[in-house]
């Protein structure tokens, strides 16, 4: 997803925002906060925080719900539009804000990350946290949407 109303920005603005928010900060480390013995991950919180740093709205909710919001009327009203695989990298290279996500149909919270460049490197928190990594490091072969 990419906000179509965004003004292209410097290619360095997104990496600077990722560095400032810092996916390796304690806030984004997986941990069990519910007491069920399973670690929760914070991809959704990291994505919200980076978007806020960039002045782009993304609501605080689970990744599955964020994907639904992006695809729905509210996301479109906020300027987010879906884009194809090849288009996502081009938009990111131009400095546009691009999210990549996977909505888990089995109910798990899913996953969301920020696309950094034309080669579809991402920044994320999750099972593993990255400031810059290949798309497959965060999503493997899952059927992602941009």
Q: What's the main sheet like?
A: 4 strands, antiparallel
How are strands sequenced across the largest beta sheet?
A: 3-4-5-6
Number of helices: 6
Name the overall outline. Answer: globular
Question: How many separate domains?
Answer: 1
What distance lies between the first and last C-alpha atoms, to the nearest angstrom? 4 Å
Task: Write down the Rg.
Answer: 14 Å
- The helix/strand class is alpha+beta
Uncertain stretches of 5 or more adjacent residues: 4-8
Tell how many strands the DSSP assignment holds: 6
Determine the strand fraction and express it as a percent band. Answer: 15-25%
What percent of the residues sit in helical stretches (DSSP H or I)? 25-40%
- Following the backbone from N to C, one meets helices and strands in this order, namely EHHHHEHEEEEH
Would you tell me the overall average pLDDT? 92
Describe the structure.
- The chain is of the alpha+beta class.
- The chain has one domain (2-139).
- Helix content is 33%, strand content 16%.
- The chain has 6 helices and 6 strands, in the order E-H-H-H-H-E-H-E-E-E-E-H.
- The strands form 2 sheets. It has a 4-stranded antiparallel beta sheet, with helices on both faces. The chain has a two-stranded antiparallel ribbon with strand order 1-2.
- Helix 1 (13-21) crosses helix 2.
- The chain is globular.
- The model is unreliable at 4-8 (pLDDT under 50).
């Amino acid at each position: 997803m990419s906000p179509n109303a965004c003004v292209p920005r410097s290619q360095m603005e997104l990496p600077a925002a990722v560095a400032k928010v810092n996916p390796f900060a304690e806030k984004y480390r997986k941990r069990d906060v519910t007491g069920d013995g399973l670690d929760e991950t914070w991809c959704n919180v990291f994505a919200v925080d980076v978007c806020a740093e960039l002045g782009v709205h993304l609501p605080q909710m689970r990744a599955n719900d964020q994907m639904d919001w992006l695809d729905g009327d509210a996301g479109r009203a906020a300027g987010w539009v879906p884009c194809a695989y090849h288009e996502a990298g081009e938009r990111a290279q131009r400095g546009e804000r691009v999210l990549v996500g996977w909505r888990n149909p089995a109910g798990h919270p899913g996953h969301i990350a920020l696309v950094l460049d034309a080669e579809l490197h991402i920044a994320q928190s999750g099972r593993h946290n990255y400031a810059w990594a290949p798309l497959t490091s965060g999503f493997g072969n899952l059927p992602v949407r941009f």
